[in-house]
Give the backbone structure.
Amino acid sequence: MNCPLRTPGLVAAYSEGHAAAGRLHDAGLDHPQVMRFVTWYSLERGDGREVRPLVAASMADKVAAVEDAQRRGTVTDRMGAGELLALVLVIATMWQRQGEDVRSLLPASERRRVVVESVRQLATA
């Protein structure tokens, strides 16, 4: 597959608040096949292989958007833009990647709130 995984609205999270992390969480629930594909893709490629150019360009655009938000002072600069982006992506999709043992720690109705609030606290300047 030569199409980078699209994260609609994620970059906007850095200019309009952190609801975009919630939308990414929702997208994972609405389209579980995407999370399964991402898992398969990472297992298939393994560690140590180069990132495909299209994927690298997509991630570079997202990092650049975070850097821009950091320069504007709308998100924290306590960590690098790539670090922040990686954490936001993991937090936004964490409930789809866990087994039932971890998912049982919090009712499904509360998970989105936890995602949005965690990203807000992490990224607030």
In short: The helical segments are 13-16, 19-30, 32-45, 53-72, 81-92, 94-97, 100-103, 108-123. The first helix runs from residue 13 to 16. The chain has a mean pLDDT of 83.
